[in-house]
Amino acid sequence: GDSVTQMEGPVTLSEEAFLTINCTYTATGYPSLFWYVQYPGEGLQLLLKATKADDKGSNKGFEATYRKETTSFHLEKGSVQVSDSAVYFCALLPGGGSYIPTFGRGTSLIVHP
Amino acid sequence: DTAVSQTPKYLVTQMGNDKSIKCEQNLGHDTMYWYKQDSKKFLKIMFSYNNKELIINETVPNRFSPKSPDKAHLNLHINSLELGDSAVYFCASSQDRGGKSYNEQFFGPGTRLTVL
User: Could you report the per-residue pLDDT of A75-99, keeping only the tens digit for each?
Assistant: First the structure.
């Protein structure tokens, strides 16, 4: 079956540091890929997405590129802020019309001033 | 304008009780979901439901049942609550465009259930 693997957290960084959160996936067909963010005490919200190979999703300074050859969708940000502290989830939607997503286990990011 | 809303936000109850959590979405979406998030933030899909079908995660105990009075609502009913049911429950919705599977999910704020 489909699966999503994320690096374990917590990831602890100082403000303005560079962020990478790794995400790799296993899926049949051509999935769409997503990053969701969950701030403390809230529900998940979409951060960015990519629907086909080599697409780059971006939002709020975060970026991720859909790499079919390495089955990866790593999340990056050049300069993190304290307000980026949250849990980040990588997810996929399989191709073929299925609307049941597969989520990774989440990676907690803690940014210190 | 809250897109996906849940009530209550907090629910504290005794073992053995029956409780319901309500969910409403005003996005006009045709698919709704229930997720359980444990203390380690692991997100597990419990149900997905649209006009055509209910898909149940086979690992979900049959004490849990979704009830959809209409397209905009999907409530979660739990019978005979157990300690292990303590978690945060999230409702979500998405638009299934019949063959186009790129649609993101919109999540509610969550209901923190504590079973004593």
Answer: 999 999 999 999 999 999 987 767 7
